[in-house]
Design goal:
By secondary structure, the chain is mainly alpha-helical. It has helices at 12-21, 26-35, 42-50, 57-67, 72-75. The protein has a single domain, classed as 434 Repressor (Amino-terminal Domain), CATH 1.10.260.
Length: 79
C-alpha cells in the first residue's frame, strides 16, 4: 500500500523575510547563531527557509532575540 506524505505548514518564507529585514546573509546569521551556541550551518539554515527541514525551537528562541520580534512574526500567515 502506497502512503503519501502530506506537507506540513512551514515558516520558511517568514524566516527569509525576517532575515532580509535585518539585512543579514545566511552566512552572517549562522555565524551569529553559532556565537550564541546554536550549531547551525548555512546549508541547514537554507533548508529551514526552503521548508525542507523543520526548525528547532532553540533556534527560534535565538532568532527572536536577534530579530527583536515577537514569536507571532515566525507564524504569520500560517493559519
Amino acid at each position: 500500500m502506497e502512503q503519501k506524505l502530506r506537507r506540513d505548514l512551514n515558516m520558511g518564507d517568514n524566516l527569509r523575510r525576517l532575515r532580509m529585514e535585518c539585512d543579514l546573509s545566511q552566512e552572517k546569521l549562522c555565524a551569529e547563531l553559532q556565537r550564541r551556541g546554536c550549531d547551525i550551518g548555512r546549508t541547514t539554515y537554507a533548508k529551514y527557509e526552503a521548508g525542507e527541514l523543520n526548525i528547532k525551537i532553540s533556534v527560534i528562541v535565538e532568532l527572536k532575540k536577534i530579530y527583536k520580534c515577537s514569536y507571532d512574526e515566525f507564524f504569520a500567515g500560517l493559519e
